[in-house]
Each structure stands twice: as structure tokens, then as C-alpha cells.
């Protein structure tokens, strides 16, 4: 009876949250294949224009890595109608902000303007798609910018390269084996024609989705979208290559020396399925249970109670084709990475052999609801989520229904998925250590 009341209470709460947070949208296609999504929200006088292209680092050639991230920068250089160096000036002088980001699977550009500048935002994104200036001056400039970014974010930052090492250790065939920033050697060797060919292939209307989100008049927006994007030529039809990774059947061991650290870091990484699968969502719940905040299982046990580590955490690294579940830890005192790994494995075995408590399950439901609300808390976040669910998941309405998928996951499934993926013979163990001092002669 108690369980029934709990389930009923959770379903009523879910219904209330889903209703309050429902995101309404309209979608349609232009003749050139550009998918358009419109979301009205008049709660604030701002409007977001954004374009997500279905191109990321996984679409690069192995000897020309970093191209997608390079274009994230390069396509701010200017267009036939926006002079070099003027892009950011135009945005800021009209009360706006803009940015872009790149992942393994997609590239995303956006502007946030006051509502009366929707036409400007649409024109600028159409210029980026149709008339970018790709010349040697821009390539050389951004090459220097990206090299400095790599030094700052990766090479000179404590623990800055651990994801790079994890990826190249976990993937042998899939392009996920390299990072989005790529190789500076590859970028140096690339010709201007190679950059132009990459742009021509991927930055096309039929490989993109345009989202307009915020305070705007729909009829007028459609007219401007047709005016600025409707005449852009359709690109070639793309067929994504499928890369298959053989299952990991024995522990992979790797070591990396980082000159920027004094405390070693333990990393345990498990390969997981596509973020579109139910199992991937269950693994997200497992991550919440093990490491979501200071009340999580691993933090309470290893940091608070046993004081074996300075920090511990875990997170799902979700991707379109495969993913990873990564646990990391910084030991303190006389504790070793091996002793902490033993403690971690004990908790994973519990998940694999016992059902989590009703209390922990209820806590997970609350975390899910909180994340659902936070993920759609602003029109900027809604715009990106609409693009993501359409382009990468193939189901735009997940912006409203994914929370229901999480709530349908059972305690039995949590146990079974932990048992399926989180085994010692299916993982990488990375010892990420300080540089060893060289012996004196």
C-alpha cells in the first residue's frame, strides 16, 4: 500500500511538472531541406536565432582532425556582406550576444537579440551559411587562436588531457578516438582547398536545423526565414559512415604523465551505448546515484567517511553513436588509486546484485525532475534542446517526454544495466600521474 501511494504521488508530481514545463513548437521544412523549428515565449523581450549543423569531429578524416572545431571559429571571420572583424561588433552594437560550440557529433551557432532584432539574427545566420569568406588570412588567424586555446585548456591546465587519453584508449576504430580540438599538426598541414571542401560538404541547409525561440511574431518570422534561407542551394545528400567498435573484454591499462599536477588521478572508463538508447539513460541514473553531489554514494563513502580522496565523481559522456561512463578520483595521504578502485568496485557490485532502496529511488526521481526543469529554464536552453532532439535523437518531442522515459526506469533495470556494462573486464584504468623526476647522474 505504501509503495502504491508513493508511485501515485510520483505520477501526480510528474504530471504537474510535465504540464507546467511543456514546450510548444512548430516545425516545417524549406524546399532546400533546412528544417525549421519555431518556439514562442513572450515571457522576456528576447529572441534566439540558432543553427545546428550535423557535423562534428567524428566526420573528419583521421589525418585532418580538428576541422569541425576549426569552423566553429572560422565562420565568425566574416562573409561577403559582413566585413572581417565586424561580426561581434554588429551583434554587440545591437544589444545582442552570440557564441558557438562543437562536439563529436554537431556544431551549434546562436545569437540572442532583443525581440526587435530577429531579422538581423536571421540574416546573419543565413550569411554564415551562404556567404562565408574562407581565405588564407582567416585560416592563419584562427590557427593561432586554436593553438592558444589548446595550450590554455589542455596542455597547460592541470588534468587537462585526461579526456584525450581516455578517448584514444577506449576507441580504436571510431573517430571518437580523437578530441574535438584535434591535432595541431593536422591543421598546419591542411590546405585552403581542404577547408573549403569540408565546408561545402557539411555546412548546408539540408544538414542543419534552424531554431527561432523567444518573443516574436510567427507570420513575420516565417517570411524572413523564407527570404533569407529559402534561396540557399541544397547541398549533396550525406550518408554517414558507420563505425563499429569490438566489445571490450579485458581491462585496458594506460598511464599518462602530466607536468601540471602533483596529485595523481585515477580514471575508470566504461564504453556505453548510444545516448539514444534506454540503457544510456539508465546509466545516467546510475551516475546520479553514485556521484551527484556530496550526498552521493561514492562521495559520502570515499571522501567524507573514509577520507581517502580529495575529490571523486562520475559522469556519462554521452554521444550519438557510443558513449562512455567515466569515474575519476584524486587520492590523498597514503591512499593509492588501487585501494580507492577497490572501494568503488564494492559499490558497483552492490548495484549489480542488490536493488537500490526505495529512498534512493525516490531521490533519483527528484533529481530527474529538477534536471528537467533546469534544462528548459530559459529560451536559450530550449532552443538548443529543440535542435539537439531533432538532429541527434530524431525525436523533437523528447524535449517534453524524455522525463517520462527516465521515470519509467525500474530499480531492476538499474541493477541489470550496472551488471551489463560496469564490469572490470570492460573498462579502461588510467593512471594519470605527475611527471617522474629524472634520476641525477
SSE order, one letter for each helix or strand: HEEEHHEEHHHHHEHEEHHEEHHHHHE
Number of domains: 2
Instruction: Please state roughly what percent of the residues sit in beta strands, choosing from under 5%, 5-15%, 15-25%, 25-35%, 35-45% or over 45%.
Output: 15-25%
Number of strands: 11
The CA-CA distance between the termini, in Å, is 76 Å
Tell me the CATH architecture of the largest domain.
2-Layer Sandwich
Mean pLDDT: 93
Question: How can the largest sheet be summarized?
Answer: 6 strands, mixed
Output the CATH class name of the largest domain.
Alpha Beta
Strand order of the largest sheet: 1-2-6-3-5-4
- Our count of helices gives 16
Radius of gyration, CA atoms, in whole angstroms? 24 Å
Classify the secondary structure makeup into a structural class: alpha+beta
- What name is given to the CATH topology of the largest domain? Cytochrome Bc1 Complex, Chain A, domain 1
Provide the low-confidence segments as ranges. Answer: 1-20
Judging from the principal axes of the Cα atoms, what is the shape? globular
The percentage helix is 40-55%
The CATH homologous superfamily of the largest domain corresponds to Metalloenzyme, LuxS/M16 peptidase-like
Protein name: Insulinase family protein
Keywords: Hydrolase, Metalloprotease, Protease, Signal, Zinc
Signal peptide: 1-20
Family: Belongs to the peptidase M16 family.
